[in-house]
Amino acid sequence: MHTASKVVLGLGVIITLFGGILMGMGGNDLGESVGDLEFDFDGKELYSSDQGGNFETPGEWYEINVYAVGSNETIDCDSFADQIIVTNKTSERVFDKNCDSDEMDEFDKTFLGWIWNKHPDELTIEATEGEVEVIAYGISGDLDGAGGAVLSFLSGIFVLCCGIFILLIGFVMAMTMTDTKQSQVTYQQVGTQ
User: How many CB atoms lie within 10 A of CB 132?
Assistant: First the structure.
């Protein structure tokens, strides 16, 4: 076997092992970080009243919807949504009215719009003439840790694939390259007598 193919095979084995270790560590981190996430796709009620008050928004990846309690047949979305004022800590209005989305209505709740804001934050809602519910849907937890774990796992897979590719190149080199050994040539004088 040629020396170059031995070196390439050795590098391929080392890189493949390193990729497997990286992938295993990333997979372990991924399992732990995804296990720590909370998925609130059924909705988490943040506020329900007509008196006004404060409420805190959950983690970063949330959609926060605002509903009027009552069906859309009894509630005029435009007039009800016009009276809703939601502000953040810097007194910036963060409620966005949307009365065109009838498919967002839930049982005995009329969709009025959503809150756009950086999360988490503390918001204030002013008193209204009817009961308002604020419901959050999304994911909470350490999303940065989960993202890093995903990248670690993917980088492990990439390094593993590179190692396997280098191994294949080494195998091809081992099969096709041969050592060229110089044959010894001896010269004998042809004697003249």
Answer: 26
